[in-house]
Write a structure and sequence with these properties.
Blueprint: H1 10-17, E1 28-30, E2 39-43, E3 46-55, H2 62-75, E4 80-91, H3 96-112, E5 116-125, E6 132-141, E7 155-159, H4 164-173, H5 183-190, H6 199-207, E8 211-215, H7 221-233, E9 236-240, H8 248-257, E10 271-274, H9 279-288, E11 293-300, E12 304-307, E13 313-315, H10 323-330
Parallel strand pairs: 4-5, 9-12
Antiparallel strand pairs: 1-2, 2-3, 3-6, 4-6, 7-10, 7-11, 8-10, 9-11, 12-13
Helix pairs in contact: 2-3, 2-6, 4-5, 4-8, 6-9
């Protein structure tokens, strides 16, 4: 049976991926697990945190995104991202301008985050219709959390707004179908690329001591990110749709395309599972540094529920497919 676009569904991950871990090592503290985006290895009394991800859903700003997406994942453990390796796959017919643009964006993003690029691999690859960049980020820490450490009763916080990455990607990739939006609104949407990083959010939140778990919501957006945290932590959750902040330009873009902003690529927002007695401290620390934060729900012992704007309790079922892939299936790239 052919597989659909996007992340593999949970049953295929469990059947084919998660159990195939290579050689065993007592140094591996966190290996492959549903809903967890980092691997963690003990190295001389410290913890090496690593994460890898491809940028596949857009040909726009992929160098920039490739650095920020994996740096975000490492930072959600509480570790500062420090090193990057990358693989750049260019489509047939790519010119030097494409290569230069990708690497300029990677270099700029890495410099802004004080990350060193160690090396990688670059090639022109047959039968690609767009460039693909795969990056791996590494950081070190004295302590860590993962998305699997949420606890029953924890307060669910999110920084910034829902659908930040998806808004920027769609505006830059599918300009040709956004006639109902004005030029200034499309530009506003594209500028959200500059809000992709959550490294500062994560390190600041973790420094308060009030955090049990953090997660960078990528594919599947805020809803997918909360679901992954609950799955990894073996918990349920209740979140409230009307508490989840969304930019006006994101709402308009989603309205034009008839898509759900809560299921749209969510990098740029950080999900935090905060200890109930310390949630206010985490919130205040973020606000003191100019970072917008909202309390959107709680983790529970069972059931995964969204309370919609009408007060209806809607059960959340997997798979939570990102809205970007739904657009990809029906609208060709220009």
């Amino acid at each position: 049976m052919k597989m659909e676009l996007g992340k593999l569904p949970l049953d295929l991950l469990e059947r084919y991926v998660l159990g195939r871990r290579g050689a065993k090592s007592e140094k591996v503290l966190i290996g492959p697990k549903l809903g967890v985006d980092v691997g963690i290895v003990e190295v001389d009394g410290r913890y090496m945190v690593s994460s890898t991800d491809p940028i596949t859903g857009t040909p726009e700003r992929i160098g920039w995104l490739s650095i920020h997406i994996v740096a975000n994942d490492v930072a959600t453990s509480g570790a500062e991202p420090k090193y990057i390796l990358s693989t750049i796959l260019l489509p047939e017919g790519a010119d030097e301008d494409m290569l230069n643009a990708i690497l300029e964006d990677m270099d700029r993003a890495a410099r802004e985050l004080n990350i060193s690029i160690l090396g990688g691999h670059t090639e022109v690859t047959p039968k690609l219709d767009r460039p693909i960049v795969i990056a791996t980020c590494i950081g070190f820490a004295d302590s860590f959390v993962t998305s699997a450490n949420a606890r029953d009763g924890d307060v669910i916080l999110m920084t910034k707004r829902a659908g930040i990455e998806g808004t920027a990607v769609i505006a830059s990739t599918y300009r040709h179908i956004l006639e109902k939006m004005g030029f200034k609104e499309i530009e506003e949407a594209e500028r959200l690329f500059n809000e992709i990083s959550v490294v500062r959010d994560a390190l600041l939140a973790y420094s308060t001591g009030g955090v049990n778990a953090m997660h960078d919501p990528t594919e599947g957006g805020i809803l997918g990110g909360v679901y992954e945290m609950s799955l990894a932590s073996e918990l349920g959750f209740v979140i409230y749709e009307d508490r989840i902040p969304v930019y006006g330009v994101t709402r308009k873009l989603c309205s034009v395309l008839n898509i759900n902003p809560l299921k749209l690529l969510g990098s740029g927002s950080l999900l935090i599972s905060a200890k109930p007695e310390m949630a206010d401290k985490v919130i205040q620390a973020l606000k003191n540094h100019g970072i917008e934060v909202a309390e959107i729900g709680r983790f529970t012992k069972k059931d995964r529920v969204v309370v919609d704007k009408r007060g209806r309790k809607l059960k959340v079922e997997p798979p939570i497919k990102d809205e970007l892939w739904r657009i990809e299936e029906i609208i060709p790239l220009p």
